[in-house]
Amino acid sequence: METVLPGSQDPWPTVHAPIHQPMEEKNQSGIIPENHLGKVIDTADSVDFDSIEQATAFYAVVSDRLLRVNAWHTLAGGGTAEFQLVDAAGGQVDRPASQGDYFRIDVPGPGPAAGGGYDWVIVEQVSSVSQSGMQSLGMRVRPSPPPGDPGGPVAHFYSEASTSSFTVTREGRRVTAGIYDRNARPNPEGGLVDRVRHLAFGLGAVTGFSKYQWHRLVRGLLMLNA
Length: 226
Description:
It is built from 3 helices and 7 strands; from the N terminus they run βααββββββα. By secondary structure, it is an alpha+beta fold. A 7-stranded antiparallel sheet has the order 1-7-6-5-4-3-2.
């Protein structure tokens, strides 16, 4: 489906090419924690527009994409994880994510026994801010047991201290999507098979898979015609 700007017959007719370069952390929503122990993984990209109106309209589109987790695999494309939004009672839902929800993540390869074959994270916080010339939406998730098993082992290749923060920010005519992993390190919990799996996947994620996954997702979030 193509998105057409107000007053235009063409989708995003005066958009500049995405900027592919390192950029400062976008933490206007205050969603990204400090890194104390573990790896930092930053992935971000931006699109510039010729008018504030176009940038504001596209910010709304990307914000909606960010919260509709079930569509992330479609946005990111083949070879990436599949995400299913699950509520606190364990039921699959199809709506924007909110605090207290879970992501059930089907990572390519074997999943953890503790998560029923899936990796799990809980949505800790969703926050937005709007000021003159700037809007930002942020969502932070943390590895967790699956819903209904709060005292069980964390079912994820990253430890419970790790977080992933997802942001969309408009500053003037620029819209930026960013994903920021903090304190990323392998999960030591679970049975022997799960611990071996977490170590292998966790190290691989730190060095490669997370960067690939998040790069593909950021590009998908910023697709002009989707």
